[in-house]
Amino acid sequence: MSDVIAFTVNGRDASVEADPMARLSDVLRLQLGLTGVKVGCEAGDCGACTVLIDDEQVCACMVPAAQVEGRRVETVEGLADDPAMRKLQDSFHRHGAAQCGICTPGMLMASAELLRAEPKPDEQQVKDALGGVLCRCTGYRKIIDAVMDAGNPPPAEEPAAGEAVGSAMAKVDGEPKVTGAEIYAADAAPEGSLWLRAVRSPHPRARFSIGDDGPLRARFPGLVRLITAADVPGHNGFGIYPHIKDQPALADGIARFRGEAVAALVGDEATIRAIRDEDLTIEWTILPPVLGVDGGLANNAPAVQDDKPDNILARGNLVKGDLDKALADAAHVAEARMETGFVEHAYIEPEAGWARRVGDRIEIFATTQAPYMDLEETANILGLERDRVRIIPSACGGGFGSKLDQSVQPLLAVAAWVIGRPVRCTYSRPESMASTTKRHPARMRARAACDADGRLTAYDFTGDFDTGAYASWGPTVADRVPIHCPGPYHVPNLRARTRAVLTNMAPSGAFRGFGVPQCALVHEALMDRLAASTGIDQLEFRHINALRKGDEISTGYALEASAGQAECLEALRERWAEWRTAADTYNEGANSALRRGVGIGSVWYGCGNTSISNPSTMHVGIAADGTVTLYTGAVDIGEGANTVMVQIAADALGIAASQFHYIMGDTDLTADAGKTSGSRQTYVSGRAAQLAGEDLRARILRLTNAVADAAIEVAGGRIAVRDGTGAHEIDLGALEADARGNVLTGEGWFDPPTTPLDENGQGKPYGTFGFGAQIARVEVDTDLGTVKVLGVAAAHDVGRAINTQQLEGQIHGGVAQGLGYALMEEYVPGRTDNLHDYLIPTIGDLPPIEVILVEDPEPTGPFGAKGIGEHSLIPTAPAILGAIEHAAGIRIEQLPATPHRVRAAIKARDHG
Amino acid sequence: MGSYLRPRTIEEAVAQLAAGPRILLAGGTDYYPARVGRPLDDDILDITAIPDLTGITDVGDHWRIGALTRWSDLGRADLPPAFDGLKAAARQVGGAQVQNAGTICGNVCNASPAADGMPNLLVLDASVELSAAGSVRTLPVGEFVTGNRATERRADELVTALLIPKVPDGARGSFLKLGTRQYLVISIAMVAVLLVPAADGSVAEARVAVGACSPVAQRLPALEAALRGCVLDAGLADIPDPSHMAPLNPIDDVRATAAYRLDAALTLLRRALREQGGGAA
After folding, report:
1. pLDDT digits over A678-727, tens only?
2. Could B183 and A842 be called an inter-chain contact, meaning their C-beta atoms sit closer than 8 Å?
3. A&B contacts, CB < 8 Å
4. Which value does ipTM take for this structure?
5. Is the dihedral of CA B13, B14, B19, B20 positive or negative?
6. Which of A84, A434, A785, B86 would give a disulfide with A259, using CB separation of 3.0 to 4.6 Å?
7. pLDDT tens by residue, A32-64
8. Which residues does chain B have within 8 Å of residue A822's beta carbon, measured at their own beta carbons?
9. What is the Cα Rg of chain A in Å?
10. Rounded to a whole number, what is the distance in Å from the CA of B60 to chain A's nearest CA?
């Protein structure tokens, strides 16, 4: 059934033939091409689809198309027609208020409603107006700034040649994020694409057989094919590790977690939307599931995977010094335990993409953090040579680790390959939440010891991690955690043991920190306890023990450079004392249930993969017309890699960043720059970009016999080089062009210097570590158990700040995710598969965040830089838990610290 | 495939309902979220084109809130202080997008245990007006909503308005809602309080309701009786005690434990009463 619906959109008359109950978001996107309207949940929980109808903000996903008959609809695409709103867009761009940008259209439309009524809003008005739009990247603070500054946006920063590094230049890919022009994975597909929807197991563990699909096809003629495991042409398995390809593209007779894909429906859009799972004939034999670490380790537990009878996927081990003696000799020993649950990445862009067969090749356009890994997995699954696969990353609407793993890619690849027509797919929010990776739940305990002067002498850690049904990044958690478990402190005697346990839960994978955010909760609890035992201030206790240049770390190698932990703590000293005193004063005078507290957390985190090669290759080319292009395989997932790589390459080459074009991630055009994970892109790919810029510069100087500090200008098909000896020129048109159309190309390659770890976990696991510390001040309502974070100060040693705006953005966003982790986030399969039961922080939850950048340069990093992505999240939750203890005298031992848990702990405190 | 009707009058609507059951649709803020990833193939009666269902009107001895009154309409409406709690709820439901689409009547009809409108409507002694072909009846909201997602609405009936009797001058309502974050929160517990002052500075009438702590929000008659006649000052906060919570029957779920809900509801009640009595909440 469809009706003709007439309305105006962005000032123009529109008339569509649509199902009257179709979601307005679908009509705007699919029929009118207004893909600036983003879809994040289809349930009014995220606000990404916010549009204005008759000047009021609403979620287009909950408006029946028929209701806009005769009304005025405005989307982000029409904003720039209003000069005041164009200024709002500029303000977002220049403040760095858009990171991945997927929430930006919704934020802008909510802001537009506000600003038309109140051109100079205060912060509370901004929060009230934007409270219905979720952002997972920014921590909201820059969004608030952008809206409050919308009448008078800051000028654009355009650094001159050689001055890009260290500037706050706005994102090179920022403009399309504020106009709605950016193309994310669900925003485009080849003409005539079929639609795909996965059918998923409703059971955590079950055998199944899929019946004849004849009746289904007879009932739904638009169903082109029901794809099952039998259709997979190559190896039906993928996985992060080259030797563990244990997760099937489509389950083959046994489903190992609720939400695992067992079949894929492919057909025209209307048909795919109309078929319910119940319409298929699937015979399920429900098997008892293995739930939780205890379930996996139980004596008679069924094996989740046949070749792992004890359900242990991986063990981690690290031994250094003589732990037992050190514990026996210690002046003070403290113990701590901690339990955490699944955490969902909750990026606002659900997984999506399309695939098509082009001759004997397959092309996949999808949201991803790892195009070359997608390429390898697709080649395996289709049984093709690698050069027959092309991966084209879309703009990525948030990743945080989960988009390292395969999601839509194997399904699309198989379908497009066997059907021979282009196929597209967009996950629904519940599907995204049920089927993709999570942060590992952890159960940890540890002991730490120090001498009478407060110097750490021993650390003993054990941790079990629920790795879910498939390996994903489980082994990484088992090796990263032992290295990082004592925190950024010098500890001579150490033992760490970890296990990754298979269960019938969604696979646990990479999530901003790979197990380190879990174990940091324990080491920071122990630092607080030992500080109390010794009577030393908590910050000073950490300062005494901070890892410094020359100190031997847990893996037995001595830090050679760039170890700014002590400086980060020093940078927070004044604020720490001020906040602690203010909290104590407040509490002394308190005549209500409110108590305030201040806590501290520290972080260290190795940049790059652990003890294995993870190189990046970058190219910078100049075409005959003088166009300068960076070919970067480092996928920008919103954190700013595109901008940072351009800044680095531009300064290395010696021309202005504004002259650079870039091509990102297309595996036919860019070299492998590894995965956007492990806080490695600025450090590893950035170094490669620097080397590529320098290589091109060296070629230009050689061609002109110019000296090293010559000035280079590229303009109009010529390169002019000036040095003390005079001016030289290269006529680019006279040079021969390569396949990419470049006449001159520079290449850079960098692999961080690491060594393998021995059986005791000793060696050099990373090329460098980032360091940092954060303090948080909170207010605990002791009668209700609610916790409000009032402020955070964060000091991070980034080696060298490449882009101060992007760094602040990363730190704000890390704090926001750390706050959610501490106070509200817990994924429960089957119960919180949406964004109203799974809570992430809103614009009302984030306090002001003070950022202090410490620069202790890393000699192997680009211009001294190292990573920040993960470091920014790790100390936040420990700082908040410490602050709760300061405020209320309770130590929370299970995350999240929801009101009922905090209140229960307070009652237990009061009743002894 | 479902069919879609969008009548222009109440008469037309009830005639269409008489012909067979349909899902009633207004703001869509409950309908669509319940169908993510599923076909939209229900038989629908969209009531948003019926002008007679709009508006908040003073009808002598009571207020009439039309079925299409949205949260944002309520939040902006010029109403006496007895409605302050309801207006506070209107500003805390979902985000601004939901407030601009969702209706207070829809909130009642959806019959969620965590419906933010319910405790406020209970203390306002609101009734639901149900229209069918050739008949109109009214039911108090507490009788209309019979359980989790269950109401007394017959398939041929349309809720056309909420009716709220006038409250004596000086009466004031208030509302406190508890969740784990700011904005976009489904309540863990919530309380609505409406106090009518007497000339001598005591409480002439107290109405108290708690939501999200039972399948349907509940009035607390024992507490109301205990409050009656007390001096209307911050000391009211000392009146509630756990025995007053007897009508409540909360559950354990992902948001909180049952024990916590009772404990928190009691705290919220004390705070609401303290604030009504002139103290700090």
Report:
1. 999 999 999 999 999 999 999 999 999 999 999 999 998 999 999 998 99
2. yes
3. 165
4. 0.98
5. positive
6. A434
7. 999 999 999 999 999 999 999 999 999 999 999
8. none
9. 27
10. 32
